[in-house]
Write a structure and sequence with these properties.
By secondary structure, this protein is of the alpha+beta class. Helix content is about 35%, strand content about 15%. The protein folds into two domains: about 60 residues; about 200 residues, Glutaredoxin (3-Layer(aba) Sandwich). A hairpin with a 5-residue loop joins strand 4 and strand 5. It starts with about 55 loop residues before the first helix and ends in a 10-residue tail after the last helix.
Length: about 325
C-alpha cells in the first residue's frame, strides 16, 4: 500500500466476538388439583427478554463495532438500514467509518433476531467471484493499452505524484504489452490523493485534456509526467507542460485553455468517485479481471496472475474486455 496515504487504521478482532444471548424468561410450574390430572408445563415463547441488546438497533450496533474495529470518536460511523441478505435467515447491514478523506466500508450479516453478526464474503458459485468489483469498474472512454477484446483486463487506479505509482507505471510499460501482445488490455484511472499530493489533481486534469485531444499522445504525457515527477510542482507544472506539448503534435493553446478552466475536472471526479465506491483508498491499486491487488506488485507476480487468468478464461469466459467492463453503444458494429 502507498505509505504516503494517511488513512486511519481499521483493525479486525482476533477472534471475532459475538453478542451473548440473554437468558429467556423462565416458566412457572403448573399446579394440579386433587380432582384433575396435572397439566404439563408449556415452554415459554422464544422472545428476547426485556433489555436484550440487538444488532438491529443502530446505537447498539455502533457501540459494538467501534469496540470491534477500534474505531475511536475521531471516526464518524454511518449504518445503513438492514436489507435482505444473500444468506437465508440473515440481514445485510453496511457500516461505514469515515475520518477526513479516508473511509472504510464493512458489510455485516445480522441474524433475524439481531443476536449474531457474521463478517465475511458471500460467493455465488454461478458467478465470477469478483463480479461485484467488475460491476463497478467502468472502462468506456478511458485511456487504454493493449488489444480490444482481450481475455484479461487490468484497471489501474493511480496518482501522477505518487512514487510507487511511478515505479509500477514503469514496470507495466516495460513488460505488459511486450509479454502479452494480444491477451491483455490495460485501462488507466485517475485517483489523485489531494490531501498529500499538491499537484496530483492538476496532473490528472491535464492528462484528460491531452487524452481528449489525442488518445495516443496521452501515453507520451503519462511517461513524461512520471519521468519528471521529482521536478514538477504547483508553480512550474503549467510551464513545463507547455514546453512538453510544444514538442509534440498537441495544440498548446487548446491545452492551456482546458487546464486553466479545469474543463476535464468532472471526468477526474467520476474516476475518484468510482474508486471510493470500490473502497480504494491508496495508490497504486490494480484490478486484474476484478481481482484486487491493493499495493505495488512485482512483475513476476503479476505475470503469474495474468497467465493464470488467461488459461481460466478459455473455459470460464466470465471476464475480460468483452465480458465485463467496457460499455458499448448498441450498434451493428459492436455485435
Amino acid at each position: 500500500m502507498n505509505k504516503d496515504m494517511r488513512v486511519f487504521a481499521f483493525r479486525r478482532n482476533i477472534p471475532a466476538i459475538f453478542l451473548a444471548l440473554a437468558a429467556l424468561p423462565g416458566v412457572a410450574a403448573q399446579k394440579s388439583t386433587p380432582s384433575r390430572k396435572p397439566v404439563p408445563a408449556r415452554p415459554a415463547k422464544a422472545t428476547p427478554a426485556v433489555g436484550t441488546r440487538s444488532a438491529l438497533d443502530k446505537a447498539t450496533l455502533e457501540a459494538y463495532i467501534r469496540h470491534l474495529f477500534v474505531w475511536g470518536p475521531q471516526i464518524q460511523v454511518s449504518i445503513d438500514a438492514p436489507k435482505p441478505a444473500p444468506l437465508a435467515g440473515m440481514y445485510e447491514v453496511k457500516v461505514k467509518g469515515t475520518a477526513g478523506p479516508a473511509s472504510q466500508e464493512q458489510v455485516l450479516y445480522v441474524s433475524r433476531d439481531g443476536q449474531k453478526i457474521v463478517q465475511g464474503n458471500v460467493y455465488d458459485i454461478t458467478l465470477n467471484p469478483f463480479q461485484p468489483e467488475l460491476a463497478k469498474l467502468k472502462t468506456d472512454s478511458q485511456p487504454s493499452l493493449g488489444t480490444p477484446g482481450a481475455p484479461v483486463v487490468l484497471v489501474l487506479f493511480t496518482d501522477f505524484q505518487c512514487p510507487y505509482c511511478r515505479d509500477e507505471a514503469r514496470m507495466l510499460r516495460q513488460h505488459l504489452v511486450k509479454t502479452f501482445p494480444t491477451q491483455v488490455r490495460l485501462y488507466f484511472k485517475d485517483l489523485p490523493l489531494e490531501s498529500i499530493h499538491n499537484w496530483a489533481k492538476t496532473g490528472a486534469i491535464a492528462g484528460r485534456c491531452v487524452f481528449n485531444q489525442d488518445q495516443a499522445a496521452f501515453w507520451e504525457y503519462h511517461d513524461w509526467v512520471f519521468e519528471n515527477q521529482s521536478k514538477l510542482n504547483p508553480e512550474n507544472f503549467q510551464s513545463m507542460l507547455m514546453e512538453f506539448a510544444g514538442k509534440k503534435e498537441i495544440d498548446t493553446l487548446l491545452l492551456k485553455r482546458c487546464l486553466e478552466t479545469r474543463a476535464t475536472e468532472a471526468e477526474v471526479n467520476r474516476s475518484m468517485e468510482e474508486a471510493r465506491s470500490l473502497q480504494v483508498n491508496a495508490t497504486p491499486t490494480l484490478f486484474v479481471n476484478g481481482r484486487r491487488i491493493p499495493a505495488q506488485i512485482a512483475w513476476a507476480q503479476l505475470q503469474s496472475i495474468i497467465q493464470f487468468e488467461i488459461e481460466y478464461q478459455k473455459t470460464a469466459q466470465n471476464a475480460g474486455d468483452s465480458a465485463c467492463c467496457e460499455v458499448k453503444l448498441p450498434t451493428p458494429f459492436n455485435n
